[in-house]
Amino acid sequence: MRILFVTAHKYLPQMRGGLQSSTHELCLALMQRGHKVAVLAGLMPDGPFAVKCRVKMKFNQLAGCQVARETGLSYPVWYAWHPWEAVARVTAKEKPDLIIVLQYQSVRMALEALKTGIPILMQMADVNFHQHGGAFEALGNVPCVANSHFTAKKYRDAYGVCPTVIYPLVNPARYKTTITKANITFINPHPQKGSHIAIEVARLCPEIPFAFYEAWPLSPEERAELSHKLAKLPNVALHPPRQDMRKVYAQCGVLLAPSVCEEAYGRVATEAQINGIPVIGSTRGGLPEAIGPGGIQLDPDQPVGDWAEATRRLWRDEARYAALSAAALQHAQRKEINFDHQLAAWERVITGNR
Length: 354
Description:
alpha/beta; Rossmann fold; 2 domains; nine-stranded mixed beta sheet; six-stranded parallel beta sheet; 13 helices; globular
């Protein structure tokens, strides 16, 4: 089967996040099952990769639409400044049997996909309805997949749809490692991910080493503020994004996930728990589904002292750590997050056998 994933969001290698990681792993897994996959995504204007794409766009205009085709991820990825304008052109080139519409400007992308006459599937991985780029009701009766029960309920309550729930695909082989418990790790120091909480926890726990890893791009103002605050914290090391997350989790003893936004799921929790790493995370959105019994859940509106105390206790209390580590490992082995089970669920959906 030929499958085209479309999104207005930015994609690898320019941006790393849950959407990008989950889509990439799904593409690789589907390819191993004999399917042909391709992705259409947005493009950031800055950086060496953007320059490379600009050059390609000059020689690869499809009916006046500027797109750049890359194959460095083992499957074709088409990048465009305005991906919705490229849906028809890329579809004509890739000739998919199914178009899977991903998050961000999803309705806008889906409406363009529907014009091709090819069946579409909506993959819901956020609850930012204001970023749909159109009225969801305009799509009519289309099949949907949600990345958590939280996300499914949000869409069911808002639009009356009944999505199939498939948690983000996480291939254990890409994350399993030997951990040294050298630090407490915070991935994606962005305001929406609760960076102010993580920073304050690190300040209140000066005896504990912390590692912050960038993921989403930061605005110049956000980066300046982060650098200013971290300059006062010698126990925090800030790292650039990592392609191989095993190197991150190898040093991680506890994962900190204090998101203030409504997370649709929170795949970093699963990535960590594959290694028996407990998570201290927020109760927002679908994150509790990802954390389960394998960690500690706190309301992001609680006093930050509560977060610091939970962090300090888990770091120091060997018995409590061992118990939560075992629970984290067991939670990562549940059927719903099993790689083969998830891939089979995806194949049932894409072939219409829900």
